[in-house]
Amino acid sequence: MPSTVYYLPDTLRNWPWKELILNPHYREAQNESFAWLEGFCRLTPAARKALYKGAFDLFCAQVYPKATLYNLRSCCDLMHTFFALDDETDSVDGAQARVLCDIAMDAVENPDKPRPEEESIIGEITRQFWQRASAQAPKAARERFVKSWNLYLGSVVQQAERRPASYICSMDEYMASRRLNIGCDPSFVLLEISLDLDLHHEVMEHPAIVSVNSDAQDMVILWNDMVSYKKEVLTNSADYNIVTIITSNCQTDIAGAIKWISHRNDELVGRFLETKEDILNHRNGVPSWGEDIDIQVAKYIDGLGKLCPSLSC
């Protein structure tokens, strides 16, 4: 790790949602989800340590504070499915990653179809997760999850293809890829489910809703990469990190990259909050979708707001 001293900015200084609320079903959902995952395979000591250290269930309890036990368990299962897929694809080439991701995609598209005995366990893990999670999900949310899962898996394959060459992306390449493989879109669908929302595509595809989703996603990328950069440098895995991308493409040092991230974060926060007001007050072309849907949209925006501090920890 370079000896450069740099300071992480307070990314939440202008963020209205600062209080972290813990879902009361945290421990029960955690225990159920851990038992479920370990039932598939005997995790190596290293994998088990990484799983517990990752605190995925605590993360879910903060991100989905209003979820029922059933839905919080589904959210935990999603994080463990991400973990299992990452563990399976982290050291393989693009061709092998594609095989595994095709299996994971088929499992989501056909959650009631038995998996072949000879295939990777990732197929059955994914199938069981989605069969359970989708059981209480509205049709539109199910469709959005399948679409977002497909895009996420495509980005996993692309990352595996680039890994051997230590490929340094351009800024545009990196953000386009990272928006997919950070897993926000599938997680946002689980947010809908956790809040018991039923929002049609025409609502979720409105430019204002797309904008707040995109800005929240980019904030997560900046925060996640900035916090994990030092660890990734120590493990020689920082090529795919926004700090590296900025220093390589903008001819600046680490401190300069952090300053860039802080400035960009402030822009995203400002736009998110402005667009939120447009949505809630039906201005600048944002319509009312009727009282019931407007209330649901407000709950979704509030859920996004509460999600971001959890991701900044």
Automatic annotation (TrEMBL):
Its EC number is 4.2.3.-. It comes from the Eukaryota. One of its GO terms (biological process) is isoprenoid biosynthetic process. Pfam families: Terpene_syn_C_2. Keywords: Lyase, Magnesium, Metal-binding. InterPro entries: Isoprenoid_synthase_dom_sf, Terpene_cyclase-like_2. One of its GO terms (molecular function) is metal ion binding. Its cofactor is Mg(2+). The keyword Lyase applies. Belongs to the terpene synthase family. This is Terpene synthase. The lineage of its organism: Eukaryota, Fungi, Dikarya, Basidiomycota, Agaricomycotina.
